[in-house]
Amino acid sequence: MSTRAWKALLDAASAPYRRAGRFAWHFARGKLRHDPVFRHLIEEGLIRPEARVLDIGCGQGLLASLLTSAAAMNDRGQWPPGWAPAPRARELTGIELMPRDVARAQAALGDRATFVCADMRHAEFPACDVVVILDVLHYIDIPAQNDVLARVRRALAPGGKLLLRVGDASARGGFLTSQWVDSLVVFVRGHRAVPQFGRPLAHWVAQLRDLGLEVDSKPMSRGTPFANVLLLAQAPVGTGSP
Amino acid sequence: MKPLPITAYTATSALGAGCAATLQALRDDRSGLGSQPFLDATDLNTWLGPVDAVDEVRLPPQLEAFDCRNNRLAWLGLNQDGFAQAVAEARERWGAHRVAVLLGTSTSGLLQTELAYRERGADGSLPAWFHYEQTQNTGSLSAFVALALGLHGPAWVVSTACSSSAKVFGSAARLIDAGLIDAAVVGGVDSLCLTTLYGFNSLELLARDICRPFDLHRHGLSIGEAAAFALLERNGAPPQGHLLGMGETNDGHHMSTPHPQGVGAIEAMHAALADAGLAPQDIDYINLHGTATATNDTAEGAAVMTVFGQHTPCSSTKGATGHTLGAAGGVEAVISLLALKHGFMPGGLNRHTPDPTLPLNYLDTTQRTAPSRVLSNSFGFGGSNACLVLGSARP
């Protein structure tokens, strides 16, 4: 994957956040550059063109900005020929509880995506082809996690995908580091002090399989001290939810 | 200051949702207050000004996290009189980041916390549906309104008790004057909650019957709730009225009692007149703070007589709306704008026996005399005083 093209895509995806303030712009640049998950999604073509995408816990809408910028780059004929097809989203919905993040997302992206300021435990999920949940579910207790996953399963079209990144509670060192850093970040960003609900990787996989999803997992913390895993869960083609 | 155009405004209170209902009640000298208790506060023998329509309001799914009585009331208010549409046009005109949201409240969504505490777990945990930042946090109101209107300019809440939503007019005028913004949504939203009701009850400031501003036998407040908004713009849209001047002071006297001679109130009125470049005789009508507490009306009446003498027509509209606390300055600015537009001076209801120590030209009923300049007082706990001078569509 061409590093120059990737850098151009990151710059394009960060640029709209200048409108949302200095913090939002620096955060966008840092997060898109240092979190391996974004490049992985693009490289592997995990979000197919024309997908309806739902990002649960979307923060300031970085994924929406990345996808919007990818489509624009493709339209300008600058999408590198060797890459997986550009992930143009047909519909983009982001759900986020924190008003400041939603305001930044709205300021950066305007009406190119729909941002919903709501609690994922109560928000309605639109019908979609791809659901992305990155480092979010551990904020709610395990019965609530299972309820969100079941509702995601019902929202997914046949063949639809859930891209779920979680911490692996059975990988002690990295998981504790994740938890400690997360507590600090959550505190600094003004959330109430919240307990965190981790589970071992095997439990996550079993939970998704119980919902009738096919599951594949990849470590997704390259270059970071964390124990994060990206789970790719796919609904069977041609059948509804069980 | 240069007259600042007010290009849209709306109020929702116990008098009804929107300007038409408010205007009709004022013209009919009809009060919105009643003696029905709020929720289960049946031990409080008092009168209230609730907005009954709030109970049916549901926020759109995109704003679900903000759900609480205060933000529902804000949503109800924003959707009256084409206000949200007028703001959308201002956003097109100036750009979303050039339009501010500056609002007043005293208790924001405090009722949500009160309801959450009733469901707290044995370990003290609050229920999962409770979101402090999005409901009770004072800033939740401006965050909610900014997101609802798609505005990305400065957004903040002023919470200085009962002067809050008058002071934001001054904040907006200063930001526009400094060139930081071109337009601002100002006003206030305050909703009924148990802390407010029991708090004022403990201060022995709640009236047992309907509140009687400037009556000899006045015995305190009737609490109301309201959402009031105004859109201030540098220029560009047809004005519906003008902000002519603004004065703000602090008594520096007492936490909950005004200065007995109203020195801070006098200075606020002088400052507002000076800001507008007007003399006292240029004011045709004064919308008094007039809470119906013994101390407020005595101090305010003395202050008004010091600045204006005894002849300027005046009244308190709190006998109609109740005291809407953090929304009162906004509500009374809208009432003043309605009086300027429709050519009347609202009556001060429920005064049976004039107080002989306050020989003001107090209007007991609505007069069909058209004012062209109105002064509106808003005085809060902590001695916080704000005074607005408002003018008609033709400055």
Please characterize this protein's 3D structure.
The complex is a heterodimer of chains A (242) and B (395). Chain A is an alpha/beta fold. Helix content of chain A is 41%, strand content 21%. Chain A has helices at residues 3-14, 22-34, 36-43, 62-75, 99-109, 142-155, 172-188, 201-210; strands spanning 51-56, 89-96, 114-117, 128-134, 156-167, 214-219, 228-234. Chain B is an alpha/beta fold. In chain B, the strands form 2 sheets. In chain B, strands 1, 2, 4, 5, 6, 8, 9, 10, 11, 12, 13 and 14 form a 12-stranded mixed beta sheet that branches. Chain B has a two-stranded parallel ribbon with strand order 3-7.
Question: Nutshell version of this structure?
Answer:
Chain A has 242 residues and is an alpha/beta fold.
What descriptors fit this protein?
heterodimer, A: 242 residues, alpha/beta, 7-stranded mixed β-sheet, 7 strands, 41% helix, B: 395 residues, 12-stranded mixed β-sheet, two-stranded parallel sheet
How much helix, percentage-wise, in residues of chain A?
A: 40-55%
Structural class of chain A: alpha/beta
What is the end-to-end distance of chain B? 12 Å
Sheet with the most strands, sense and barrel status of chain A: 7 strands, mixed
Strand order of the largest sheet of chain A: 3-2-1-4-5-7-6
**Cα-atom radius of gyration of chain B:** 19 Å
- The span between the termini of chain A is 39 Å
Largest interface: A-B, 25 and 21 residues
How are the secondary structure elements laid out?
The complex is a heterodimer of chains A (242) and B (395).
Chain A: H1 3-14, H2 22-34, H3 36-43, E1 51-56, H4 62-75, E2 89-96, H5 99-109, E3 114-117, E4 128-134, H6 142-155, E5 156-167, H7 172-188, H8 201-210, E6 214-219, E7 228-234
Parallel strand pairs in A: 1-2, 1-4, 2-3, 4-5
Antiparallel strand pairs in A: 5-7, 6-7
Chain B: E1 4-13, E2 16-17, H1 19-27, E3 48-49, H2 69-78, H3 83-94, E4 99-104, H4 110-117, H5 140-149, E5 155-158, H6 164-177, E6 183-190, H7 194-202, E7 223-224, E8 226-233, E9 241-250, H8 263-276, E10 285-287, H9 294-308, E11 313-315, H10 318-321, H11 328-342, E12 361-362, E13 373-380, E14 384-391
Parallel strand pairs in B: 3-7, 4-5, 4-6, 10-11, 10-13, 11-12
Antiparallel strand pairs in B: 1-2, 1-8, 1-9, 6-8, 9-14, 13-14
Helix pairs in contact in B: 2-5, 6-11, 8-9
